[in-house]
């Protein structure tokens, strides 16, 4: 989604583009910047690597940044690197590193059902969703409600849910009193809606903001 959003910015590297090319990773404290570069150079052209160190002792905190030349390279690194690195898109530079480190550790140590990645495999059975799982017992439909404490941008949310085949429309609304986000998503089949809910309920978009995705009654026969 972030990459799609940045396409309109052309070839020049603006502030938005910079925030799409920098990733934040958890690393062994023994890593040097050269070790970090060596581990992540396979995903693209690296502009710089840096390791966060204790200001008093100079020791590594076990955290680092890797800046790529292209957003697509940063996205590939997040998707394909070993999960032990817990790679995520770095926060904007106007947020203090200490604040970001605290948020990062808090999020990383939580027990999460899945990482912030979407391994859509494109198989007809949607990666073998088991029909006897309890989540399928709820009243399903082709339509989903998406709620967020932050407002949505129509194009970004559409691009996110369009990763699941069969998206028919995405209607974004905003509560003027709370500034929270609300959207209605509809797919061509209930199977697509089930898969989208399974993958995107609890997904952090943007990082740190969890989406709530539930089924909306659409009048169709849910037995299908």
From TrEMBL:
Compositionally biased intervals (Basic and acidic residues): 92-104
SMART domains: RRM (SM00360)
Protein name: RBM45 protein
One matching Pfam family: RRM_1
Region annotation (Disordered) ranges: 92-117
Domain RRM: 21-95
Alphabetized GO MF terms: RNA binding
Lineage: Eukaryota, Metazoa, Chordata, Craniata, Vertebrata
Keywords: RNA-binding
Gene3D superfamilies to which the protein is assigned, alphabetical: 3.30.70.330
């Amino acid at each position: 989604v972030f990459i799609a959003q940045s396409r309109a910015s052309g070839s020049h590297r603006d502030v938005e583009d910079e925030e799409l090319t920098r990733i934040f990773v958890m690393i062994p404290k023994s890593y040097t910047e050269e070790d970090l570069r060596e581990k992540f150079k396979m995903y693209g052209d690296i502009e710089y690597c840096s390791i966060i160190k204790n200001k008093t002792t100079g020791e590594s905190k076990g955290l680092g940044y890797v800046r790529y030349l292209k957003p697509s390279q940063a996205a590939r690194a997040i998707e394909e690197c070993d999960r032990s690195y817990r790679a995520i898109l770095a926060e904007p530079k106007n947020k203090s590193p200490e604040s970001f480190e605290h948020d990062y550790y808090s999020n990383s140590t939580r027990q999460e059902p899945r990482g912030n990645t979407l391994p859509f495999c494109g198989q007809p059975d949607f990666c073998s969703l088991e029909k006897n799982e309890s989540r399928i017992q709820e009243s399903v439909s082709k339509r989903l409600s998406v709620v967020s404490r932050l407002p949505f941008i129509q194009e970004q949310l559409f691009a996110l849910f369009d990763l699941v085949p069969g998206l028919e429309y995405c209607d974004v609304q905003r509560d003027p009193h709370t500034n929270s986000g609300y959207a209605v998503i509809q797919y061509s089949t209930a199977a697509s809606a089930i898969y989208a809910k399974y993958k995107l309920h609890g997904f952090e978009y943007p990082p740190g903001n969890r989406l709530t995705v539930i089924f909306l009654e659409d009048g169709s026969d849910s037995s299908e």
